[in-house]
Write a structure and sequence with these properties.
- By secondary structure, the protein is an alpha/beta fold.
- It contains 15 helices and 13 strands.
- The longest helix has 25 residues, at 3-27.
- The two termini are 43 Å apart.
């Protein structure tokens, strides 16, 4: 077993694929902009199709488009010939991938787009191939060697196609001013969804929010702290705005004669707060930076009233760390 040979092969493959990507950028021209405009003009969906390895790349491109604001789905070309052509309709645009541009399983799908006037973007490695010549917009991959020494295994060609799909998706996304908030709507689960969660998604609201007025005796204030279970209580001004907060530290500082005071006399004024539309990740950073465990949620447009409370454990349970 020659371990050095394995390493040399890996480096050669990566170098060839990196060179291919370097060649891809300069090879793009007005036809790339035409493809973006064709997709933007479509009133329906982007139908992405390809056979074999190109099919796997097509699935990923469809998923990337769909998650970044461009409705898209994958149609298998063999299944298309057995009824799935019905998944394509007027208003759609079709993106077809084939390195050779001559994949026989694509014939019925290509013919269907031509018959019914469905715009088609072709991606292939041969400029004179059937796919490119029949497409409304043809995106031709630069001629570079595959990463394997035999030159038969789709490697650099699939890498370039994948990168081209990402380029289309990002160009469309940036044109539509697609924001992290939009992205979060399509990614509510997993680590990514957690990172993009808003404070309003995790906060406790309504009756769960521990609030007392400034004139509330400390005996009742302590009862409120115990009942709500957050270890703190918010103190409201006469107009309902959040005036302060009573924490464990405030209790210790007023230990002598504590029950002779009101919440307003014990509280810390102008506490740190967070807006409901802020990212929960931002709230966690604020709590960690100030060594606190809770933040009251205050909507700036709601006259300074506390609409919720967020505990650091809420963030940790959601996977934000």
């Amino acid at each position: 077993m020659n371990r050095d040979t394995f390493l040399a092969t890996a480096r050669r493959v990566i170098a060839r694929e990196a060179d291919a990507l370097q060649a891809l950028g300069p090879a793009l021209g007005d036809n790339f902009a035409d493809a973006v405009e064709l997709i933007l003009a479509a009133k329906g969906r982007v139908i992405v199709s390809g056979m074999g390895k190109s099919g796997h790349i097509a699935r990923k491109i469809a998923a990337t488009l769909a998650s970044t604001g461009t409705p898209a789905h994958f149609v298998h070309p063999a299944e298309a010939s057995h009824g799935d052509l019905g998944m394509m309709a007027e208003g759609d645009v079709v993106l077809v991938l084939s390195n050779s541009g001559e994949t026989p399983e694509l014939a019925d799908l290509i013919a269907h787009t031509r018959r019914f006037g469905i715009p088609m973007i072709g991606v292939a490695g041969r400029p004179n191939s059937t796919l490119i010549t029949r497409a409304d917009v043809g995106l031709v991959l630069p001629e570079v060697p595959e990463a394997c020494e035999t030159g038969f295994v789709p490697t650099t060609s699939t890498t370039m196609t994948l990168a081209l799909g990402d380029a289309l998706a990002v160009a469309l996304m940036e044109h539509r001013s697609f924001t992290p908030e939009h992205f979060r709507n399509f990614h509510p689960g997993g680590k990514l969804g957690a990172r993009l969660a808003k404070v309003s998604d995790l906060m406790h609201g309504g009756e769960a929010v521990p609030l007392v007025s400034a004139t509330t005796p400390m005996s009742d204030t302590l009862l409120m702290i115990s009942q709500k279970g957050f270890g703190v209580v918010g103190v409201t001004a006469p107009d309902g705005s959040l005036a302060g907060i009573v924490t464990d530290g405030d209790l210790r500082r007023h230990m002598d004669g504590l029950l002779d005071h009101t919440a307003g006399e014990v509280m810390t004024a102008n506490p740190r707060t967070i807006a409901p539309n802020a990212l929960a990740e931002e709230a966690l950073a604020l709590m960690n930076g100030n060594k606190i465990t809770c933040l009251f949620v205050v909507d700036p447009g709601d006259k300074g009233k506390a609409s919720g409370i967020l505990h650091i454990h809420d963030c940790l349970r959601a996977g934000i760390a």
